[in-house]
Specification:
By secondary structure, this protein is mainly beta. The protein is 5% helix and 56% strand. The chain is built from four helices and 35 strands. The strands form four sheets. The protein has a 22-stranded antiparallel β-barrel. Strands 1-2-3-8-9-6-7 form a seven-stranded mixed beta sheet. The model is unreliable at 1-44 (pLDDT under 50).
Length: 657
């Protein structure tokens, strides 16, 4: 019986229930990050929309959403947590759950990640790759946000951090921070028979820290067959073996289900139910030698993630498509500080992908099975940066690096990068970066070849997709006195994508084959402003302008904005956030050379608000809250014929101890 069925049965017996019981092995996770220089933060307990932007010493930009922002956004899944991030576009059909088939739930970064199968965006939990390995794209329901301390969006290729992708979303699990026992629990209920329950518990004593998280959400949806259900459990154990050696284990189980409600008024357009199950195990050792000014930090991590993406009750002739995947490998990284201001980062990533698919066709179709080959890619990488001071309060940090790719089936590649960061002591920071992104076809190309036998083994002749990414930016932070501060960031970027892999049906004299035929360009500008206005008030606003050379590129609105405000008056906390965008093409960017996008949705803006009132009870910090989604009751869609809910409310309580 699928895990989601066990969860549903348990929940029906227990009411609110604790739907996931996690029994996981001990395995340390340690992450080695390049030294990051954070932009001047908005100094409030929780700034709106995003936790902040940061620039690493290689000139690469990343945006982080923290646990506080996830709470204020009432986000129960990844799409909801990132829906206000500058440059990020989402797609969804249901209030709870991201339908994983066809052009269902997705997250797109500056127009990338729109291909299905074979997306250009990879997702990670504690540096472990976790996505649908067979179809080579993320499944959002596999990525719970309630157990996460931070979600970081890497906008463009950053070979010094991750490889084999054009953009990345990295989730970091919560760790036990303070001594003793601490935790929080929340329960909320709202329209459409929606129920959300989450719990976190941590214990830290001496050298040992244990953190556990559990989450459950379900909804009947705002129209027939718009129901969804999410359930997850995570355990993290941190152990300081000595003053120089630390071990971390992360284990997780998830089980989810979502339906396709179809085009409104056309029940025959529904395409069934998509169930996801997944597990993740990671063990890492992190070693530190010397001092921060001159020393060595190194990490060895081994991992395995696996799961299923099962698409049931598709219209004839498809029937059921049942896919299983497994990702495993290791991460070896070290950062040496040989002199003050200098940094040498070297490492090796080894990733292996296995998977299979069972196609249960509707009669008179026949059942068939695809058993994929094992794909393995080795990625040694090296990067060097040096921060130097110059006259007049200026400092500059040039950097260079390269990531190499050794693939066991497809062509090898290299991805060089270079950057420059120039800073002034008054808070001005200028930056420039150029990097090549590499994105290999996954098992999706082999699976399509199994569905279309005429393609034969042509997929084995493919080269990886390439992106040449260039970016320049500037940021400035300025104190306004009395703990008030404003910070501004602006960036201009260009992405040239080439060698996109497609299958083409050519004249009768030439057999159909996979080929590297596709190419397009994306240019854009992003700006953002953060203001700490004092008295517990913080504001955020951003705008993004995109100009793709491919007019029908989906999920790339020409203009979009996002913003938010937080007013923490101690006796209550009010948060408001919004995003808006112009009309855009939708649906996925197909892999067939003849595929075109003709569907568009109109522009829209959506507002959300949350009011929390603290209540003291037996020493626990408790709050009662109410939130309203689509505050202005706008009509909008992410796919033609798939209306999203109008204004709807959620009521709940949250307690910390």
């Amino acid at each position: 019986m699928p895990l989601t069925h066990h969860i549903a049965r348990h929940t029906s017996r227990s009411g609110y229930g604790l739907p996931v019981v996690v029994a996981l092995l001990l395995c340390p996770v340690a992450r080695l990050h390049a030294q990051v220089a954070t932009l001047p933060p908005v100094r409030v307990s929780a700034p709106p929309v995003i936790q902040g932007d940061s620039i690493d010493r290689y000139g690469a930009l990343r945006t982080t959403v923290g646990a506080d922002q996830i709470r204020d956004l009432d986000a129960i899944d990844l799409a909801a947590a990132l829906r206000r991030v500058p440059g990020v576009t989402i797609s969804r059909w249901n209030p709870v759950g991201a339908f994983g088939g066809g052009s269902g739930g997705g997250v797109f970064v500056r127009g990338h990640g729109t291909s299905r199968p074979g997306g250009e965006l990879k997702t990670f939990i504690d540096d472990v790759p976790f996505y649908m390995g067979v179809w080579n794209h993320p499944l959002l329901d596999l990525l719970p946000v309630n157990a996460m301390d931070a979600i970081t969006v890497h906008k463009g290729p950053q070979p010094q951090v991750v490889g084999n992708t054009f953009s990345a979303i990295r989730l970091s699990s919560r760790a036990a921070q303070a001594d003793g026992v601490h935790g929080d629990v929340s329960v909320a209920s709202g329209a459409f028979n929606t129920l959300v329950q989450q719990a976190n518990l941590s214990l830290k004593t001496g050298r040992l820290g244990i953190a556990a998280a559990q989450g459950f959400a379900r909804s009947d949806g705002h129209r027939p067959d718009a129901d969804g259900q999410l359930a997850n459990g995570l355990l993290r154990v941190d152990l300081a073996i000595s003053s120089a050696l630390r071990a971390t284990f992360t284990g997780m189980l998830v089980g989810n289900s979502a339906r396709d409600p179809g085009i409104a008024g056309q029940p025959s357009s529904r395409t069934g139910r998509y169930d996801t199950r997944g597990s993740l195990l990671s063990l890492a050792l992190h070693h530190t030698a010397g001092s921060a000014a001159r020393g060595l930090r190194s990490t060895l991590q081994v991992y395995r993630s696996a799961g299923d993406g099962d698409w049931y009750d598709q219209p004839a002739p498809d029937g059921n498509t049942l896919a299983s995947f497994a990702l495993q490998g290791l991460r070896l990284r070290g950062e040496l500080t040989p002199w003050r201001g200098g940094s040498i980062v070297a490492g090796l990533d080894v990733d292996e992908i296995d998977g299979d698919v069972r196609f249960d066709r509707v009669a008179p179709g026949v059942r068939s099975t695809f058993e994929g080959p094992t794909l393995r890619v080795l990625q040694p990488h090296l990067a060097i940066a040096n921060r130097m001071g110059i006259l007049g309060g200026w400092a500059w940090t040039p950097s260079v690096g390269v990531r190499a790719y050794d693939h066991n089936t497809l062509a090898d590649e290299i991805a060089p990068h270079a950057g420059l960061v120039i800073e002034h002591e008054n808070g001005l920071r200028l930056r420039a970066q150029i990097a090549r992104g590499i994105n290999y076809p996954g098992l999706d190309a082999a699976a399509i070849s199994a569905l279309v036998p005429a393609l034969g083994a042509s997929w084995q002749n493919l080269s990886p997709e390439r992106m040449l990414h260039s970016e320049v930016g500037a940021s400035f932070g300025y104190g306004l006195g009395k703990a008030r501060r404003v910070s501004v960031d602006a960036v201009a970027f260009r992405d040239d994508v080439s060698e996109r892999y497609l299958f083409a049906f050519t004249p009768a004299s030439v057999p159909p084959s996979f080929r590297n035929l596709g190419a397009y360009r994306m240019r854009g500008i992003e700006t953002s402003v953060r203001l700490d206005a004092g008295a517990g008030v913080a504001l955020f606003g951003s705008g993004t302008w995109l100009e793709p050379s491919l007019a029908s590129l989906p999920s790339a609105p020409a203009r979009s904005f996002s913003g938010g405000a937080v007013w923490d008056a101690r006796r209550w906390r009010l948060s408001v956030d919004a995003n808006g965008q112009t009309g855009m093409f939708v649906n996925t960017l197909g892999r067939a050379a003849s595929a075109t996008n003709t569907q568009r949705v109109n522009g829209f803006s959506v507002w959300h608000g949350r009011l929390a009132v603290p209540v003291s009870r037996r020493g626990a910090r408790t709050e009662l809250f109410v939130s309203a989604d689509n505050l202005l009751d706008r009509a909008y869609t992410y796919l033609p014929g798939y209306p999203m809910p109008g204004r709807w409310f959620t009521f709940g309580a949250r307690a910390e101890f």
